[in-house]
Amino acid sequence: MDALITLASGEASFFDETFLYIAGGALVVFALVVAFLGMKKEDFPTDGQFKALTGVAVVLVVCTGIGAVQSARFEQAERRAENQEAAKEAEAEAEEKEAEEAPLTEGEAAEPEGDAEGEGGGSGEGPSGDADVGPEGVALFTEAGCGGCHTLADAGASGTTGPNLDEVLPGQSPDEIRTSIVDPSAKLSDGFTDGIMPGSYQNQFNEVELDTLVAYLSEVAGN
Questions:
Q1: What are the residues whose beta carbons fall under 8 Å from the beta carbon of 192, sequence distance 6 or more?
Q2: How large is the average pLDDT for residues 52-64?
Q3: Average model confidence (pLDDT) across the chain
Q4: Which residues contact residue 177 at a Cβ distance below 8 angstroms, ignoring those fewer than 6 apart?
Q5: Is 103 helix (H, G, I), strand (E, B) or coil?
Q6: Which conformational region is residue 173 in: left (phi greater than 0), alpha (psi within -120 to 50 degrees), or beta?
Q7: Which is more confident, 173 or 43?
């Protein structure tokens, strides 16, 4: 993934905003000049001039389009790299916190483990459950760009394009949350229309990643 991001950034380095502005500006100036000459000269353009101007216009339009596409790809690659970096930092912080809270001796380790088994009942609730899915869940949520559309306090996300997950997910079963991810058209939240959320996440996540994300959302939404 890092190699793909580096390649995309290298390809787009030439087609930056400066190139896009130059190509777009040249196209605007060209259109103004042609319009001005058309108003001043009755015989403009001649057949030869029309062919030449058409060729120039095509070149400028193509250059502007290429610049826009490559600039968008470059921004997307940068955004993905930033998301991955944020996910790595979140995972490192979680591991550091887990290390600080870990028991120092085997005798001390036995008691928290027993408490987790008695209170959590193997359901994944409590501190040990959070430690299992928390860092990976945050990483998956962040890398997939979910925070750009949804609000989720635990992940520091405040998107408003889609439903507030802290409000709509509490009370839902893991199966319902899973369906909302892989088949968002199956059940729509009040005030939101079909098509806002893409249906491609089923192919983007493998089964383990999807289970981890569902478990994470089940644990933290609304907390």
A1: 162, 163
A2: 89
A3: 77
A4: 169, 214, 217, 218
A5: coil
A6: beta
A7: 173
* 139 C-beta neighbours (distance < 10 Å), count: 24
- pTM for this prediction: 0.41
First to last CA, the chain: 33
Residue type, 90: A
**pLDDT on residue 10:** 52
Spatial separation of the C-alpha atoms in residues 124 and 196, rounded to whole Å: 31
Which residues share a beta bridge with 158? 151
Geometric angle at alpha carbon 133, from 123 and 143, rounded to 5°: 145
**Residues written for the chain:** 223
Beta strands per DSSP E along the chain: 151-152, 157-158
Q: Which of 128, 120, 121, 122 is CA-nearest to residue 103?
A: 128
- The candidate with the shortest Cα–Cα distance to 161, out of 172, 151, 152, 176, is 151
Distance of alpha carbon 204 from alpha carbon 181, whole angstroms = 11
Least confident of 65-69, 106-110, 141-145: 106-110
42 SS3 class? coil
Q: What is the pLDDT of residues 128-166, one digit of tens each?
A: 344 467 788 888 888 888 888 899 998 898 988 888 999
Q: Give CA torsion, residues 192, 198, 204, 206, to 10 deg.
A: 50
